[in-house]
């Protein structure tokens, strides 16, 4: 019976080495997103600077509009603008841990009807 193979077959199994590489790539992408740095064609680095009070303004505008919880606001935002953001992401925006893009800020303005400050691009010399 040497010709038979009794090993179990597992489909879509990721080895430990592949998982480590995927985790490293994921961390690098998240780091680039959080730093919001973009390289332009002229080898200049552009950093996006957000208003430090954006999170506080988002919270105040949400409460003033009558949304008691972040979840209620997110449901309304996703229905009206099709932005499809999660509660965790919005929570990070209000706590100034992450910065929404100008496009996302514009869509939130439509729901809360309050003008919010936009992000500015700043060139960094190497």
TrEMBL record:
InterPro entries hit by this protein: Lambda_DNA-bd_dom_sf
GO molecular function: DNA binding
Protein name: HTH cro/C1-type domain-containing protein
């Amino acid at each position: 019976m040497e010709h038979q193979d009794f090993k179990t077959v597992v489909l879509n199994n990721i080895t430990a080495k592949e998982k480590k590489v995927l985790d490293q790539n994921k961390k690098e992408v998240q780091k680039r997103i959080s730093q919001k740095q973009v390289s332009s064609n002229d080898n200049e680095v552009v950093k996006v600077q957000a208003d430090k009070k954006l999170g506080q303004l988002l919270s105040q505008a949400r409460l003033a509009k009558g949304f008691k919880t972040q979840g209620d606001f997110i449901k309304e935002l996703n229905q009206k603008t099709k932005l499809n953001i999660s509660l965790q992401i919005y929570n990070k925006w209000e706590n100034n841990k992450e910065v929404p893009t100008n496009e996302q800020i514009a869509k939130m303005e439509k729901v809360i009807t309050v003008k919010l400050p936009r992000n500015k691009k700043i060139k960094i010399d190497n």
